[in-house]
Amino acid sequence: MRISDRVENTPPSGIRRFFEIVEEKEDVISLSVGEPDFAAPWAAREAGINSLERGRTSYTTNRGRRDLREAIADHVRRYDLDYDPETEILVTTGVSEGMDVAMRAFLNPGDAVAVPQPTYISYPATARFAGGEVLPVRTDPENDFRLSYDALERAGAADAEALVYCYPNNPTGAIMPETDLREVAEFAREHDLTVLADEIYAALTYEGEHTSIATLPGMRERTVVFNGFSKAYAMTGLRLGYAMAPPEAIEAMNRVHQYVMLSSPTTAQYAATEALRSCDDQVSEMVAAYDRRRRFVRSRFEEMGLPCTDARGAFYLFPEPGGDDEAFAEALLESKDVAVVPGSAFGEGGQGHVRVCYAYAMEDLKEAMNRIEAFLREEW
Predict the structure, then answer these.
(1) Which of 48, 183, 324, 353 is surrounded by the most beta carbons within 10 Å?
(2) With the CA atoms of 367, 370, 371 and 377 taken in that order, what torsion angle do they form, in degrees rounded to the nearest 10?
(3) In the chain, where do the E strands start and end?
(4) Residue (of 313, 246, 237) closest to 272 by Cα position
(5) Burial profile 102-137: b = 16 or more Cβ within 10 angstroms, e = fewer
């Protein structure tokens, strides 16, 4: 069969490649996949189970259940966001689907999309699948991988149609203090950029408070904010997210969503509604556990002499062992049965780094750090 050029020219996921290698080996400690080791809170699971027992297995409305959209609107007020659940919220099958739908709703063939890098692997791919051209915007460890006005200007982002924004960041764990965020907002306003803001890790901000870019002056009308339930609520397999934007933007996105997805999974919507209503305490406990793990892994890297930026969000660290990052990751996996992801999988600026996810049990992290230390001492 003839394969489209867009697909042929899109490389396979570097994260999934290592995940598949891990599946074939025994006694591997995998720090490669960004997935909580917690189960979803019981109240959320029980709500999903109850919905199945009651036979609630039909489609919902395209935009998602009204009570879920209302719960989302209530929830995001903690970030000073105010959206109408009737016209400004769309429930999606994970943030990944939301971002894909947005790219297709807002891009014309050849439009440039500014993507800060290192970056989560799906953004460049979804931009290309929508016919866009990816414009890499390099961020650097010297600036803790924060996005800046100067970086956008140097990359030529003034000529882009859209800007992808993801902070707290995957893969670096970087956050954006409000002073830096105001610079980015200024650039977006000056050059009339549509901002696609993936804030899935908003709740996983360990130092300071998360600020949504949509709350800054002149940004709400040009921003789509994405969030979801995979990370903070440990509901990765239920595949549920949401997008918030002005009515005309949500209408455009829903026009794509209703053809490709119809509606998001019904059982997950019941679980998510209950998660928002009653599971804040469990989320706080999980976030506190991630923070303890973050500080532990960071301190062990310091003991090893492994350079690492000051990651204060998400659940990743991005140390710099130096040299060929793919060779490092492959040798570490082969020699010590520890899986990490090469930084080059995340685009420009990732070379020489590896992504380490610390959303795993402390005993596994301790053993993994011991193995990495031995590898650095003996082989690298």
Answers:
(1) 353
(2) 180
(3) 29-30, 89-92, 112-117, 133-138, 162-166, 194-198, 223-228, 241-244, 316-317, 338-339, 341-342, 354-357
(4) 237
(5) bbbbbbeeebbbbbbbbbbbbbbbbbbbbebebbbb
